[in-house]
Amino acid sequence: MTSPNLIILYVKDPGESASFYRNLLNREPAVEAPNFVAFPLEGGFTLGLWRRSKVEPQPSAIGNRGEVAFMVKGENAVANHYEDWRGRGLPIAQELTELDFGPTFVVLDPDGHRLRVCEPDK
């Protein structure tokens, strides 16, 4: 069976984005080239950052039409991440709030990609 294992975000500057994600994820990329950077993630996933001008075929639009979600476990884990990321000066798109699925908030990366933190489904 084929399983997805790579998330690719189109970015203006992979070097700038790599610095952001290096700090956010507290890890080094496995691949760092002028037009592509890849960070291995837990669970066998990889986060790829591809220079938008080099993507083939070119994307038809840019903007935040989706989110990368970080599900965190533990009492007050979402609130703790919120305080940590806010303290780092990350741009907050949605303040810590309670939605149907529990506590959550959203920050933006340098290209405006939405990064949501929430709890896993119970």
UniProtKB/TrEMBL annotation:
Domain VOC, first and last residues per copy: 3-120
Gene3D superfamilies, per the entry: 3.30.720.110, 3.30.720.120
Bilayer-crossing regions: none
Molecular-function GO terms, alphabetical: dioxygenase activity; lyase activity
Pfam families found in the cross-reference section: Glyoxalase (PF00903)
Keywords for the protein's UniProt record, in alphabetical order: Dioxygenase, Lyase, Oxidoreductase
Chloroplast as UniProt keyword: no
Top-rank taxon, per record: Bacteria
PROSITE patterns: VOC (PS51819)
Family annotation (InterPro entries): Glyas_Bleomycin-R_OHBP_Dase (IPR029068), Glyas_Fos-R_dOase_dom (IPR004360), Glyoxalase/dOase/EhpR (IPR026275), VOC_core (IPR037523)
Heme recorded as keyword: no
Protein name stated in the entry: Catechol 2,3-dioxygenase-like lactoylglutathione lyase family enzyme
The organism of origin for this protein: Rhizobium leguminosarum
